[in-house]
């Protein structure tokens, strides 16, 4: 069975975007720089460019997510690609069709790119390892493993507001254990040279040996937020708010929810980010989410440009 | 091969454009060499419309062959394109494909009243029906060579001939 | 059929013999070792010059996939693989479909295997009906049908009262109970070791404590009931330490490890290689090193292949959804030899782990070379390296993390009941 890192070819050229882990800083920066140009495009009256005209991009969502799918769809359409949305969570998979059969069928429809969302860690790797060599795969989230475009748009946002990565302290707060976003953020932040990355969570929401990823672990917001420039909040899934992981959303909010008081413990000009959708009153207080330190809406705007950049770099490679 | 002095060519180009300039003229330089020239012209000709720059990477017709350029710059058109009288500035005019891409991009900003083209060097070899209104010089060069405009730290411009390894 | 195996280096772990000696076989039994008996007219002479002659291997876990999973492998394909691996006796876990919980099923399996006339098959009877952990099976009846031991391969019973009663009942008849220590409530949907790799890849985990908590329960219950317990597939350093301590106390336990776990760690999962989706999961490199070192003092008794052929479709899935297991009966000898070479252990000790010790655990008269005993023999070339590829392994399952690797030790002849049933 093929078991190499399928993201880069033998010349180090990006073939698929599956995870931020193992990608060189130069490549991450190139994506951010290219995205910068696309921000210009998205600010025009005519937001469309002809770059991917005639290309077919399939959104393969094995796990429902209107929001992420929409951002990829907008990005592809602004590049003039044809977009086909497949919500496979409710079609082929429920009929028992094998994942790779689904993929092979779609490849036969002359796909150029797959944007894949799946509940299982490693699903995008599996697809990338078995698609025709001229098809590019973008991981739009696999299990608890990776969500590289989210992490890249977060990096874009950080660079936009903080200019330089090399003197920042960043805290990622919340359900690290189940978060593909957190994993991709951690790899991207360390590759881009952020000297201090912290994770703040109760022990039930932290994976074992998470410090091996290069982060400092805190369980107390007051200590963890000290001298922080960037706060990256994570979404807490409904089913994890009570039970064996946490006693109640109320208790979580009290100790880990981001309130103005807790935010005041970070640096004065710290920015607050969230990948969305937010649980107001659980991981973040409304006054913070809508407050002047929040950059949550710009994240969404930048997300389109970053996804345009990833798609156009991949399509050209 | 002895190449002409870019500074001399520039002076000549500036003189030719000056004749047609008025307060409504807008300048747009194509990245990277064209943008340097447009910047100088904008200053020298005291043009009142703000300077625009274009990176045509997103409009190139060779994307399927060579992919996305590794350093894409952001296009910036800080004036109303609709109804504008624009002089597009590039360093070297060859096949005309870059200019085609630039015109396409411009039309995504609006419908200009007129676009004319200025090029420091017209080296022939056109593959599209495009002609420059203003040129510094016309040169015949071997097809396998690439002519590139360089800018020193002092701002001094010069021309260099490279082996061609990428289509225009 | 009279066979004379000559010039071979005979290694018999049970009797501590490692010498160039000839073996003489007649009527399915070893009739002499060393000197030729009077009136011995060999109908076949096997020249084992520069080869090693040892007892046929005894593998404590080989899934033949019958009944129920014939699309993954069949008795025919897997029995061919067994003898190609120099293995002459196998214990088969009861996790078939239906499970081996009825005498009829066991008899059918024994009958089908016997007709193939290849290796000896020893079905492990289900400890509970349907392996559901609720009701005891008819162990005595199953024993009459051919089950020598009883097991619950899918981890510890959720209900400890059922387990203690099953142990008491088994010990009534002197049967041993085989358990894979894994506390299900600490496992849930886990697929990987709780270490850096799972953290990086975002895979749900089977923590080490799932093994140690179960071990602790089993050891205490073994002590309480006095039943002989065999612990299958130990995977962690802590687990090994607990077994060592329990053995020191004199508790009647034995244990085995899968040969995969002697060589691999969670790092080998790489980018979600589903061939490394094993259960128990491949653990950290320190766990692997502890397993590799735990034979010296006898803490770990035996090495098995944990042979589990899986069809390709079931492995071509995201890691967590892919089916557990690796094919391996043909790799048991090569990987055991490789481990022995890397640990600089004498062959006599190395081969004991796949011949005499597992035979003792299974309670069968096999795994040794003695005059008068059944002639189950493996003859292999220790110097011959071969590459593991889908075409070099006979098992219908091609799922192994060792694909593409060169391994030492090629089986040249396998004899069962004095017949050459495999030769290469």
Kindly describe this structure.
The complex is a heterotrimer of chains A (317), B (168) and C (424). Chain A has 317 residues and is α/β, with parallel strands linked by helices. Chain A is built from 11 helices and 9 strands. In chain A, the strands form 2 sheets. Chain A has a 5-stranded parallel sheet. With 168 residues, chain B is of the alpha/beta class. Chain B is built from 4 helices and 7 strands, in the order H-E-H-E-H-E-H-E-E-E-E. Chain B has a 5-stranded parallel sheet. In chain B, strands 6-7 form a two-stranded antiparallel ribbon. Chain C has 424 residues and is an alpha/beta fold. Chain C contains 13 helices and 20 strands. In chain C, strands 8-9-10-11-12-15-16-17 form an 8-stranded parallel sheet, with helices on both faces. The two termini of chain C are 20 Å apart. The chains are: A alpha/beta (317), B alpha/beta (168), C alpha/beta (424). Chains in contact: A-B, A-C. At the A-C interface, helix 4 of A face helix 5 of C.
Helix/strand/pairing category of chain A: alpha/beta
Helix content of chain C: 25-40%
- Report the biggest beta sheet of chain C as strand number plus sense, adding barrel if it closes: 8 strands, parallel
Rg over alpha carbons of chain A: 19 Å
Proportion of strand residues of chain A:
5-15%
- Topology order of chain A in helix (H) and strand (E) letters: HEHEHEHEHEHEEHEHHEHH
- Assembly state of the chains shown: heterotrimer
N→C terminal distance of chain C: 20 Å
Largest sheet: spatial strand order of chain C: 8-9-10-11-12-15-16-17
Structural class assignment of chain C? alpha/beta
Count the helices of chain A. How many?
Answer: 11
Contiguous runs where pLDDT drops below 50 for at least 5 residues of chain A: none
The number of helical elements of chain C comes to 13
* Percentage of residues assigned to helices of chain A: 25-40%
What is the CA-based Rg of chain C, rounded? 21 Å
β-strand number of chain C? 20
Question: What would the average pLDDT of chain C be, to the nearest integer?
Answer: 95
Q: Give the terminus-to-terminus CA distance of chain A.
A: 25 Å
The percent range for strand residues of chain C is 15-25%
As laid out across the biggest beta sheet of chain A, the strand order is: 7-6-5-8-9
Can you give the mean pLDDT of chain A? 93
